[in-house]
Each structure stands twice: as structure tokens, then as C-alpha cells.
TrEMBL record:
Residues 1-22 form the signal peptide. GO terms for molecular function: peptidoglycan lytic transglycosylase activity. InterPro entries: Lysozyme-like_dom_sf, MltB-like, MltB_2, Peptidoglycan-bd-like, PGBD-like_sf, PGBDSf, SLT_2. Pfam families: PG_binding_1, SLT_2. Residues 64-355 form the Transglycosylase SLT domain. It comes from Oceanisphaera profunda. Keywords: Signal. This is Murein transglycosylase.
Length: 433
């Protein structure tokens, strides 16, 4: 866990209100890189087959070795023994493929519904149900121990590595060493590298078996080393917290422990699909605007089937695709999922997949499938035009985050339009006029 943010093997980019982008790496979700490095848990997976990159030059190798010597001093100061360090770095080379992946920014992104279609596909649901059934005893025991719903644990497993089928095969030490050497996220990478060395020193795994995504996430549910150190569990009782084995038991228990630690509410939903009244004030639809359920009920919010909004504690209103798409009341568990990977799209996918594994169907309202996704450069253009018109997006980065959403809302209000904050192609056209 601890996914700096880029994500997934699905390699999709998503547009989402409420999200900002990824650490400009591959992918899918979005949300600010800064945030995610701090708060999330898993790291990217990435099974994206990429073109072969060139091997490092002699100069690069020399520079890399210089960095390694300096880092060795730092690691030894932090309690890593020379034997651990040297065994871990034996044969480790600079990996240009990692640098390439870390530097790539997706120009084209997918709409949230396209992302969800893939993330919660029939195949993924069917496979997940089979996996759940075959591990029923283990998953029930995990649920009983940690009070985290089995369907969510299975869902995270499905999202992170397609139920263990692509856990990544990059040496964790080599991947993190390359990121540290590259320097764009040196502090983060070095901290994770120290964590990885501590894991090796404790004997949970050998350097050879310590593999995962190119950015350091390991095992069935993609834990970053520092998250592993804090939350990994030995659930099968063999004395090792083994998230790398074929047997997913320890990894699944570790995921449950992680979610429990951040306040998972057993048997409570991540969110429910709702219907908003005609005159609803969309400026209140913001993930950070948590209010008691009574507050929303007074404002006419009902479930999509017209029932009173259920009470699972404070709720916020999520409008992921504007006023013309499905709308949700989200509860505490939504936030807990975001501790795993800090993106709105990811949290929706985990929640929706979990519900489907448990028998639920698609959302009731239709997605505005006619809306095309804006490219990164179009989002840049949108931000520039909004800012120029006095609706400050507080930066122009091609990522529609909370500041851009607020700017869009302010603009929409100035035009007496529904202030849903949605960055649509029609909004872009309107701004150009
Ligand atoms: Ca174990």
C-alpha cells in the first residue's frame, strides 16, 4: 500500500471530479502526487508492457554507484548492517525502464465510467467470486479478526493485482534505488528503500523474492515497504509476514489490518447512489463537506429508489460525472479506501467491485457516455482560460483537482449554470467563445 498514486495495471487515466493527478506516471487515477505520496498505501503496479529501454551508459552507472555509496552510509546510520545492504544491492543496476515509467504523463485519460467498466468488468467479478469462494474460510477468519468486510478485501486484491495474477516482477531494491537515484522523488524513494532493507534484515523475504511493481509496491495487494513494516500480518502463523508467496493469506490479512487501522466500519457501505432534488445546491457537493445524514435529508436527498438516506454517520455528496451522471452519498469507508490509494476513481472502483462481488448490479442512473474525456492539454487550456477570466485554478497542471473544480463552479455560478464543477468538453467550448 502506499501507492504514490499512479496506479494500476489497468493503466487508464481517469477524469474525475475531485481528483487531481497522479504522480505523473502512468495512469489511472489521479489525485495529487503530493497527497498520495503522503497518504496512500499501495504503489503502482504496472504491468504495462513498455518498449525496451536502453541499458545505462558507463557514466550513468558511475553516477549510480556514487549515489549508492552515499546511500550506504545513510542506511548504515539507520541500523542496516553492511551484510544486509551488500546482499540487497548485489547485482543491482540502474533500471532505465523505471525512469521512463516514472516520467511518463498520460496525455489521454479515460472517463470515470470507462475506468469503472474495466475495473469492475464481468470477468473481474466472476473471477473474484471464484477466488472468494475458494478462500472462504480464510476470508471469514480475516473478517472476524479485523472487522473488515471480506468483499472489500477481495475487491482490493482484484484492483491491485487482478487477484494476484500480476504482482510485478521488478526487484524492489532496484526499482526504488533507481527512483532514489533519479531524484524526482528522492526522499520518498530513499525512505521506502530503508524500509525495504529493514524487511530484508528481519528475514521475512530474500532479496531475490522481494519483487513487485517498478515503484516499490509488493505482493498480492501491493504494499509499499514502509506500509508493510507497519501493517503486514502473519495470518497463517508460519512466523513470516509473507505477502510475496503464491498463498495470498498474509497479504489479504495485511490489507484488512490496514483498512481496520484507518477506521473501516464493518458492514457499512462506502456510499449509496442517491437522487438530488431539482433545486439542489451543487456547491455543497464536495468530498470535504461532511454533514450528518439529517442535514442531507432536510435538503431533499433521497436514495436513488426514493428511500430516506440511510445513516452511517457523516456523509458527503459525490458527483463524479457532473449533474447528468450518477450521484452518491459517501460515508467514512470511502475515505478509508482512499488511504489505500488516494484517488476518487480508485475508491469508487473498490467500493463498486466489492458490491458487485456481493451480488449488486450496475448503478441505476446512466453515465453521460456521450461526454468525451478532455486530454491533458485541453485541461491545461481549460485552466488557463478560467484563470484568465478571474476564476483562479491555482496552478495550471492539466489535472482537474479541487482548486480547478472550485474555479469551474465559480464560473458556472457566474453564468447561472448548475455548479457541478465538472470539466466537460462543452465547458471548454463555452470558454473558448
Ligand atoms: Ca505467514
Amino acid at each position: 500500500m502506499l501507492k504514490p498514486t499512479y496506479i494500476s495495471a489497468l493503466v487508464l487515466g481517469v477524469i474525475l471530479s475531485g481528483c487531481t493527478s497522479a504522480a505523473n506516471t502512468a495512469p489511472v487515477t489521479t489525485e495529487s502526487a503530493k497527497d498520495s505520496a503522503k497518504t496512500s498505501t499501495t504503489a503502482n503496479k504496472t504491468s504495462t508492457p513498455a518498449a525496451k529501454t536502453r541499458p545505462p551508459t558507463a557514466t550513468e552507472m558511475a553516477d549510480f554507484n556514487t549515489w549508492r555509496q552515499q546511500f550506504r552510509v545513510q542506511a548504515l546510520n539507520k541500523g542496516i548492517t553492511p551484510a544486509t545492504f551488500d546482499a540487497a544491492f548485489k547485482g543491482v543496476k540502474l533500471d532505465n525502464q523505471v525512469i521512463k515509467l516514472d516520467g511518463s504523463q498520460a496525455e489521454f485519460t479515460r472517463q470515470i465510467w470507462e475506468y469503472l467498466d474495466t475495473a469492475t468488468s464481468t470477468t473481474r467479478v466472476t473471477t473474484g467470486r471464484e477466488k472468494w469462494k475458494s478462500l472462504e474460510k480464510t476470508l471469514s477468519a480475516i473478517e472476524a479478526r479485523y472487522n473488515v468486510d471480506a468483499k472489500v478485501v477481495v475487491s482490493v486484491w482484484g484492483m491491485e493485482t487482478n487477484y494476484g495474477s500480476y504482482r510485478g516482477n521488478t526487484s524492489t531494491i532496484a526499482g526504488l534505488a533507481t527512483l532514489a537515484f533519479e531524484g524526482r522523488r528522492r526522499t520518498f524513494a530513499e525512505a521506502e528503500l530503508i524500509g525495504a532493507l529493514k524487511i530484508l534484515q528481519a528475514g521475512d523475504v530474500t532479496p531475490e523474492r522481494m519483487r513487485g511493481s517498478w515503484a516499490g509496491a509488493m505482493g498480492h495487494t501491493q504494499f509499499m515497504p514502509t506500509s508493510y513494516l507497519q501493517y503486514a500480518q502473519d495470518f497463517n502463523g508460519d512466523g513470516k509476514r509473507d505477502i510475496w508467496s503464491e498463498d495470498p493469506t498474509d497479504a489479504l490479512a495485511s490489507t484488512a489490518a490496514y483498512l481496520a487501522r484507518f477506521g473501516w466500519q464493518h458492514k457499512a457501505p462506502w456510499g449509496v447512489e442517491i437522487k438530488l432534488p431539482q433545486n439542489f445546491d451543487y456547491t455543497t457537493a464536495d468530498q470535504s463537506n461532511l454533514k450528518p445524514v439529517a442535514y442531507w435529508r432536510e435538503r431533499g436527498v433521497k436514495t436513488i429508489t426514493g428511500q430516506p438516506l440511510p445513516d452511517f454517520g457523516d456523509a458527503a455528496i459525490l458527483v463524479p460525472a457532473g449533474a447528468h451522471g450518477p450521484v452518491f452519498a459517501i460515508f467514512k469507508n470511502f475515505k478509508v479506501i482512499r488511504r489505500y490509494n488516494n484517488a476518487t476513481s480508485y475508491a469508487m472502483a473498490v467500493g463498486h467491485l466489492a458490491d458487485k462481488l456481493d451480488g449488486a448490479g450496475e448503478f441505476v442512473a446512466s453515465w453521460p457516455r456521450e461526454e468525451r474525456a478532455l486530454s491533458r492539454s485541453e485541461k491545461v487550456a481549460l485552466q488557463k482560460m478560467l484563470t484568465a477570466k478571474g476564476f483562479d485554478t491555482k496552478g495550471v497542471d492539466g489535472v482537474i483537482g479541487p482548486n480547478s473544480i472550485n474555479a469551474i463552479r465559480a464560473y458556472q455560478q457566474s453564468k447561472q449554470q448548475v455548479a457541478d464543477g465538472y470539466a466537460s468538453a462543452s465547458l471548454l467550448e463555452q470558454l473558448k467563445r
